[in-house]
Specification:
By secondary structure, this protein is α/β, with parallel strands linked by helices. The protein contains 6 helices and 7 strands, in the order βββαβββαβαααα. The protein has one domain: Ribonuclease H-like superfamily/Ribonuclease H (Nucleotidyltransferase, domain 5). Strands 3-2-1-4-7 form a 5-stranded mixed β-sheet. A two-stranded antiparallel ribbon has the order 5-6. A hairpin with a 4-residue loop joins strand 1 and strand 2. It is globular, with a radius of gyration of 18 Å. The two termini are 12 Å apart. The mean pLDDT is 90.
Length: 197
């Protein structure tokens, strides 16, 4: 084996970004594939938990098909965020946690983590600020900055989704890139290099 194959995941419930990145033992990396998984709430009246279960199963099935095709050995997934929503309180803009979004984000995160553990895929958790710092060298980088940096990192890759939601797969690739600095991934890469000598 001459590479570590990493699946980067930008978690969500409506939009989930996936990216396969090969980290080469001899140095460098290649973006192999990306995918955007989308789910939508039911248009008919249905119990919330039943609808969430259906959407979670759609995410799991799509993710399973993706990892079966590309066979990664490492999962790099962004930690569930604060899931903030903008509120206007007494004429002042305030950002507060949206409990519903936080709940579904954690459901999805746990499902993907469990799928990977069942397939013996090593799991790495990455903070969102860490991704911004790694790619753009600033924790306040915008989504546009992030997309531009990832595309510049892999200029030969052309199979980006033709939608505004490209930010989710770009984030997934950025998460995979950030995982290169994870201590466990660095140890795996060192062992891989040693085996080539």
């Amino acid at each position: 084996m001459t590479k570590l194959r990493i699946v980067g995941v930008d978690p969500g419930f409506a939009n989930i970004g996936l990216a396969i990145v090969d980290l080469m033992a001899v140095g460098g990396s290649t973006l192999v594939a990306t995918e955007l998984i989308t789910t939508s709430p039911s248009k008919t009246k249905i119990a919330q938990i039943a609808d969430e279960k259906r959407r979670l199963e759609e995410i799991e099935d799509s993710f399973l098909a993706f990892i079966e095709e590309y066979k990664p050995s490492i999962l790099a997934m962004e930690e569930p965020g604060k899931c903030l929503m903008r509120r206007n309180i007494n004429g002042k803009v305030v950002w507060q946690t949206n409990p519903s979004l936080l709940r579904t984000s954690c459901l999805m995160w746990g499902a993907i983590h469990g799928v990977c553990r069942s397939k013996d895929i090593y799991c790495v958790s990455i903070g969102s600020q860490e991704v911004k710092k790694t790619l753009c060298n600033k924790r306040t980088a915008s989504k546009e900055d992030m997309v531009a940096k990832v595309k510049a990192f892999y200029p030969a890759y052309s199979d980006w989704p033709k939608t505004k939601k490209v930010e989710h797969v770009a984030d997934a690739a950025g998460i995979a890139i950030t995982s290169f600095k994870d201590p466990a991934v660095m140890v795996m890469l060192k062992k891989l290099r040693s085996s080539l000598c």
